[in-house]
Amino acid sequence: MRKTTWIAALAVLTVTAANAQSDNKVVVTGSIQSDILIPQDDEKIGTEHTSDWALTNSYADVSLQSKYIDAGARFEFLEHPLPGFEKDFKGWGVPNVYVKLKRATEKSQAELTLGNFYEQFGSGFILRTYEERSLGIDNSLLGGRIMWQPIHGLTLKGVSGVQRRYWDLNKAWINGADVELNVDQWIKAMAEGNTYLTLGASVVNKHENAEHDDVFASPIYKLNLPENVNAWDVRANLSHGGFSMLAEYAQKTQDPSFDNGYIYRKGYVAMLSSSYSKRGLSLLLQAKRSDNMSFRSRRSMNGTSSFLNHLPAFTMDHTYTLAALYPYATHPEGEWAYQAELGYVFKKKTFLGGKYGTSVKVNFSHVHAIDQSPRATEVSPGHFLTDAGSNGYGSSFWKWGDETYYQDLNVQIDKRLSRDFKLFLMYMNQRYNKTIVEGEGGMINSNIFIAEGKYKMSRKLTLRGELQYLTTKQDEGDWAFALLELSWLPNWMFTVSDEWNCGETNLHYYQGLVTFNYKSHRIQAGYGRTRAGYNCSGGVCRYVPAQKGFTISYNYNF
Q: In this structure, how many other beta carbons lie within 10 angstroms of the beta carbon of residue 492?
């Protein structure tokens, strides 16, 4: 795959640039990213020994854009990948290359993409391909994508291809179509009344031969695996003024896989999300029920690879270190998920607003098991099957199961105390079912306190500090975290931090970083320890082992 893609990428970009240059100016953009770790062994925190003196994940993207043709390619070097990335990452080459033909008029628009591409239908319940380097995810499709807007307000899409899995391609063929209708563009009175309505529908087919995988086998029987799995999605998004509501439902046919234990139950997901905002006030309410909705391009896979779809977690994505210590990963086998958030700004020169005003936000999320009642299948007179090869279970839509998977209640206060000093406070109460998310550990109940202050010392100097404390009687006990960061505009930033387990292990995870920015260049150098744990984004998580050593990161955009 690597040598052939090198040749194909160079040929495609050269021909595309030549053709585009003859018609109009070509705009070249791109980026370079390289993250390097010079590892050191540390028995206390449990680092993994490696014989490599340096580990790196490095990427270089280049794209050419013109009036009628776009093209691009990405080079990746992961011959010695960073800790937490599977051995499958090891390699180098050009796994991503594409050419896009496009044409636009006043009334219509069309695009044809050949090569690697990313696409999402609706909220991603039946199709979402994307790249997230921090999680090691790149599940692009290799094939063709067409987008056509024949008239204003109507968008048609079609995709066909095979999915990337690290340096290989899964053999299943993926085909899909999507239609989206902006009703307000056809009804003038709606747009004039600040009312907008979008209707959408999607279908996706996965064709996977049974012999492609070494799947579940039994000495008693052999599973008759479906070669075609079909999924469909319908949705409606209505907004008026500051009010918005999205309703979406998706369903998947029988898809026995490693994730569900090779049962023959259909998959379902339903979501309702509403929000309201006006000056000084915001409100968000969300609910989602998913059931057996893991959808992969290879049925025998587990972990973070080969997913065709995405199920949002409906939990707050925390950025503070201790608030993110126990992050939630979506449970694709099934869950009820709820989230509510209220934000309010107390006006200036009021009792609670003070001189500069006060922002308050309350967020609550709860994820619970769905009802799963055993439903046996009679395979012969008097003999029932409830495991692989059966329908698995029954599930009443509104009924909860017995377990709480995750719960988070947090209150945030953002307050400017003077022209130069700003204070942020947060309290968080969390319940984290470690057994469900990580496989063992039981329920962890914690309380987290966070204070952040930012002081503008001069026009160029800003000092930011964080103090965090997490208290719990489970797992490894209490944690404390402290950080100081000095920004010296326009080029420098200096950061020191320490994450201390003041409970069971009494270990310190210290770090020191120096960051330099110059125009489109950014380089960061540091030294320290990183604890073992999960790195998550949007309900998708990857385990990262403990590490220690010197780090260098370089980013360049052109």
A: 14
